[in-house]
Amino acid sequence: MPITFRVNGESVTVDVPADMPLLWVLRDVLGLKGTKFGCGIAQCGACTVHIDGRVDQSCRTRVSTVRDRDVVTIEGLSPDGSHPLQQAWRDLDVPQCGFCQAGQLMAASALLADNPNPSDAQIDRALNRNLCRCGTYVRIREGIHHAAAAMTDDAPAGGARVEEDDR
């Protein structure tokens, strides 16, 4: 039975098994390659997306659970890569290999939507489910602070909320 949901603001209908992970629907069916496979057990955060305004790992989410819901991927953070976090990542050369960075950016955007001026401890807590195998955590924190400063004069950027249960 086809499943309809919204991805990055556009309605999509997919005819896939209901228990197929959302990650594979995004990557293999819809061609949105920004969301990465890391561990497959929701422990690394590489597959982080926003579902109805909440951070979630797409590797553990069955596509049937997103029927009639809103999903935002890294491609939807900003269509042209101009989100303050994406700009900060470029300005500060945050990624080393870049593999985990889409998930890091999605978690960071949720944090900044909820807390426009987070401390290092708040950043660490909000991103504790996102692993960086290269260890660029200091640059990630710096990038978040840089983006937060850039956003102070702008209207709040879209993003998902990080809830206490999600940390």
Verbal overview:
- The protein has 167 residues and is an alpha+beta fold.
- It folds into two domains: 3-77, Ubiquitin-like (UB roll) (Roll), CATH 3.10.20; 84-157, [2Fe-2S]-binding domain (DNA polymerase, domain 1).
- 34% of the residues lie in helices and 13% in strands.
- The chain has helices at residues 22-29, 74-77, 84-91, 101-114, 120-126, 137-151, and strands at residues 3-7, 10-14, 48-51, 54-57, 70-72.
- It has a five-stranded mixed sheet with strand order 2-1-5-3-4, with helices on both faces.
- A hairpin with a 2-residue loop joins strand 1 (3-7) and strand 2.
- It is globular and about 45 Å long.
Brief descriptors of the model:
single chain, 167 residues, alpha+beta, Ubiquitin-like (UB roll), DNA polymerase, domain 1, 2 domains, five-stranded mixed beta sheet, 5 strands, 34% helix, globular
Q: Quick summary of this structure?
A:
This protein is of the alpha+beta class and 167 residues long. It has helices at residues 22-29, 74-77, 84-91, 101-114, 120-126, 137-151; strands at residues 3-7, 10-14, 48-51, 54-57, 70-72. Helix 3 packs across helix 6 (137-151).
Task: Describe how the helices and strands are arranged.
Elements: E1 3-7, E2 10-14, H1 22-29, E3 48-51, E4 54-57, E5 70-72, H2 74-77, H3 84-91, H4 101-114, H5 120-126, H6 137-151
Parallel strand pairs: 1-5
Antiparallel strand pairs: 1-2, 3-4, 3-5
Helix pairs in contact: 3-6
